[in-house]
Amino acid sequence: MLIKSYTQEIASRQEFEMIKITDKVREAVADSGIKNGVVFVISMHTTTAIMINENLPCVEKDIEMTLERLIPTDYPYVHTHMLPSYGTCSGNAPGHLKSMLCGNHCVLPVTDGKMAGGKAQDIYFVEFDGLKIRKYTIQIMGE
Predict the structure, then answer these.
(1) N or C: which end of the chain has fewer CB within 10 A?
(2) Separation CA 4–CA 12 (nearest Å)
(3) What is the mean pLDDT of the chain?
């Protein structure tokens, strides 16, 4: 069994942003030389998510509005106090909760050297606490 890992850096430009990374994942799968197996895409942060959905602006907006309804920005969260370990105040409780709800990874099959997925499926790196430089890992396992 072969295992190939790639760490990607990504810069978010908004507090909430859905950034399509499907092509980067496809490139990593092709570069890996692995013909059959699985590809994992994993966020390295607690206020971001990895999500699979359809690449339509209306769907992206519906996702954003639904998450805001479920986890409103202006709720009186407990995670809004001084964090001595960071030397700053926190205010990103909604980002942590949205990340928890959406998940930090996805897994797709690799068949004949290509990432398999539905025609309308795209992979997103989702930022809930932007403007930041972030990282995610693409790991391909197989033969």
Answers:
(1) N
(2) 26
(3) 94
Triad 33, 37, 40: Cα angle to 5°: 95
DSSP 142: E
**CB within 8 A of 41, min separation 6: which ones?**
21, 25, 50, 105, 106, 107, 108, 123, 136, 137, 138
Q: Six-digit token pair at 131?
A: 């403007």
Task: Tell me the one-letter amino acid at 41.
Answer: V
Rounded to whole angstroms, how far apart are CA atoms 99 and 130? 13
With H, G, I as helix, E, B as strand and everything else as coil, classify residue 104. coil
User: All domains of the chain, ordered by start, with CATH?
Assistant: 2-142 (2.60.120.460)
> Tokens in use for 57?
């602006």
What does the block give as tokens for 130? 């932007």
Tens of pLDDT, residue by residue over 1-57, are 999 999 999 999 999 999 999 999 999 999 999 999 999 999 999 999 999 999 999
